[in-house]
Amino acid sequence: MIANVKVPDSSIVKQAEDYARSVSNDMLFNHVMRCYYFSQLFVKQEKVKTDPELMFLSTVLHDLGFTDAARGPNRFEIEGAHAARKFLVDNKVPDDRAWNVWHNIALHVGDLNLFKDDTTRLMQLGILYDLAAMPFDRKLDPDDVAAVLLHYPRLGFKQGFLALFEDELDRKQPYPHRFHMCSCIEHQRTGALNIPDPQAFFASAPFDE
Predict the structure, then answer these.
(1) What DSSP line would sit under 97-121, residue for residue?
(2) Among 8, 19, 166, 187, which lies 20 to 30 A Cα-Cα from 101?
(3) 208 occurs within a structural domain
(4) Residue 2 pairs with which residues in a beta bridge?
(5) Does residue 209 lie within any of the structural domains?
(6) Would 155 be classed as within a structural domain?
(7) How many domains does the chain have?
(8) Tens digit of pLDDT for each residue in 26-57?
(9) DSSP per-residue string spanning 138-173
(10) Could you tell me where the DSSP H helices lie in 3-155?
(11) Tens digits of per-residue pLDDT, 169-203?
């Protein structure tokens, strides 16, 4: 155990971890593993009932879209969701459960997962915490965070993760992403829409790298 968090003891969990490790570089693999542990730390903090296996599958497979296992014309979260669902179905996971993972991954780039069930919502918090220690009004025990980082160091994550996005954009031009209609209207109406600087966002994370 790391930080008193257990990994579910099931065959598909072991297969998913092995699969993610086999297709990801060390930086990306450590990221998805940290996301699971941070998600579970939020579960312990809130004392709610969740599905730890579903949370593990969703977090550990959520960035397949940045790997050669999920190359395709669609944006990375969609290609990653397709690859994760195929992997799960090929390994005899029930179709409805595989679709649950698909939805968690396909929606993880925006904020929609934060309005869903506890398993999905806390999975999303784990991902946000590893990106920038968000949400800013929630704190995890520093000793628990340090234990996770000791087992899964960041390995230059701030710059390395940005590079994955830049490679994604270089591969797909024009990029197949549609802005939210409200964002388009506000931009055209007032020109005052604040578009954050992603490099500054990643750099703001309260981690050394």
Answers:
(1) HHHHHHHHHHTTTSSGGGGS-HHHH
(2) 166
(3) no
(4) 5
(5) no
(6) yes
(7) 1
(8) 999 999 999 999 999 999 999 999 999 999 99
(9) ----HHHHHHHHHHS--SSHHHHHHHHHHHHHHHSS
(10) 11-23, 26-46, 52-60, 76-90, 95-106, 118-132, 142-151
(11) 999 988 888 888 998 899 899 988 888 888 888 88
Contact 177, 31 (CB under 8 A): no
Return the structure tokens found at 180.
């939210």
pLDDT digits (tens, 9 = 90+) for 92-131: 999 999 999 999 999 999 899 999 999 999 999 999 999 9
Residue 1 lies in a domain: no
pTM, rounded to two decimals? 0.95
Distances (CA, A) of 36 to 33, 73, 100, 157: 5, 28, 16, 16
- In this structure, what token pair is assigned to residue 187? 């931009």
71/168 Cα distance (integer angstroms): 10
Show the domain range for 101: 11-203
Kindly state the tokens that stand for 172: 């797909």
CA distances from 196 to 107, 156, 199, 200 (A): 19, 21, 9, 8
Q: What are the residues whose beta carbons fall under 8 Å from the beta carbon of 109, sequence distance 6 or more?
A: 77
